[in-house]
Amino acid sequence: MFAIQHQYIERDSGKVCTEHLCADTAVKFLYSSARENAPVLFRAVVSAWGSSLLGYINYETILGAKVSWGKGHLQSFNINLDECVDGPARLNTTKKVFERKIRFWECRPMPDDPCAIVSPSDSRVIPGSFCETSSLFLKDKFFTYDELLGCGKREWLHAFFQGNFAVFRLTPEKYHYNHTPVAGKVVDFYEIDGDYHACNPGAVVTVVTPYSKNKRFVTVIDTDVPGGSKAGLVAMIEIVALMIGKIVQCYSEERYDSPQKVCPGMFLEKGFPKSLYRPGSSTNVLIFQKGRIRFAEDLIRNMSRQGVESRFSKGFGIPLVETDLKARSFLAQAIDNK
User: Fold this and answer.
1) SS3 readout for the chain
2) In the prediction, which pLDDT does 4 show?
3) 8 Å CB contact between 209 and 147
4) What are the pLDDT digits (tens) for 55-75?
5) How confident is the model at residue 210 (pLDDT cuts 50, 70, 90)?
6) What is the rounded distance in angstroms from the CA atom of residue 120 to the CA atom of residue 181?
7) Residue 97 φ/ψ, nearest 5 degrees
8) Pairwise CA distance, residues 320 & 312, whole Å
9) Is the pLDDT of residue 147 over 70?
10) Contact (CB, 8 A) for 149 and 286
């Protein structure tokens, strides 16, 4: 059963905010009544075909594409026009709004420390650990470890054993480009097929380990190379969601110019655009090797903050609270123990 509301902490101000959950009633129906009483319908909706159809209706047809996105409408969704590359006159469809570009080089400052790890997205984050001796131990809350990385990827399952992770949930109004969280050499890049479950918190807690059931792209980056972030191996996992038809790999070192597909052997600089989610909400997961990073203290402290109502929990009714943060902002410090 879904909680009445879902709250998070705004990092910059420290305020407790209540999230307006898009299509919450529909998600409740899909993940309760339909899932239990109409499993064929449920499977159809979360399939690639069903998700693409919903996305097309919402973002490509007259129902979605011809929405009047005036300045007031954009601001009502907390979209900051001052940071957008294009003005309101060009952001005239739902699809264009969700795929907007921003002047990240001005409005998303990045720490100067080369060993700082940064957020890959404008999103709400929960850090965690696979190690039972860690205070962040959250095993199997959001995904099954071996399924998320791919059961056949024994090399990476071994490399990240008992490591740390961070789950970044992008809501529909967010800027939907992902940025590189570290600098390093790509040693593997692969796709894992799966479903298109919603990223609404109610859906996440209803479907057991949903993020390891969705289609996803895995990029493994070696940061212990010249010019790297000195954080060991880092896995960046981009996960599709309901109405996310595609994840476009479009790495660029000069703003958004000359985008390239990510492939093994490439060196990725930190903080640059790496990929774009097609319209909707979605999720990133970063996985780190054991003992190679230390999360920002405020993110850990916020997870257990009292008086915040969250649909996520540690168990026994104890809330698990997200922090809302910006792309390229400080996430963790690398620990160079080589």
Assistant:
1) CCCCCCEEEECCCCCEEECCCCCHHHHHHHHHHHHHHCHHHHHHHCCHHHHHHHHHHHHCCHHHHCCCCCHHHHHHCCCCHHHECCCCCCCCCHHHHHCCCECHHHHCCCCCCCCEEECCCCEEEEEEECCCCCCCECCCCCCCHHHHHCCCCHHHHHHCCCCEEEEEEECCCCCCEEECCCCEEEEEEEEECCECCCCCHHHHHHCCCHHHCECEEEEEEECCCCCCCCCCEEEEEEECCCCCCCEEECECCECCECCECCCCCCEECCCCEEEEECCCCEEEEEEECCCCEEECHHHHHHHCCCCCCCCCEEECCEECCEEEECCCCEEEEECCCC
2) 62
3) yes
4) 444 545 444 444 444 455 555
5) low
6) 5
7) -65, -45
8) 5
9) yes
10) no
pLDDT tens digit string along 75-113?
556 778 889 999 888 887 777 888 899 999 999 999 999
Domain spans in the chain, listed from the N-terminal domain onward = 11-334
Question: Residue 262 has which token pair?
Answer: 């990510």
The residues, ordered by sequence, that sit 6+ positions from 257 with a Cβ below 8 Å of its Cβ are none
The answer to whether 160 touches 168, Cβ cutoff 8 Å, is no
Nearest Cα residue to 43 out of 257, 176, 197:
197
Take residue 38 and report the two structure tokens written for it.
């109409």
Distance between CA 63 and CA 234 in Å, rounded? 41
Pairing mode, if any, of strands 322-325 and 7-10? parallel
- CA-derived radius of gyration, the chain: 19
Among 75, 106, 104, 107, which residue's Cα sits nearest to residue 91? 75
> Left, alpha or beta for 295 (phi > 0: left; psi -120 to 50: alpha)?
beta
Residue of 205, 113, 195 lying closest to 167 (CA atoms): 205
Integer Cα distance of 21 and 233 in angstroms = 35
Give this prediction's pTM: 0.84
Structure-token pair, residue 310? 């969250």
pLDDT tens figures, 284-317? 999 999 999 999 999 999 998 988 988 777 665 6
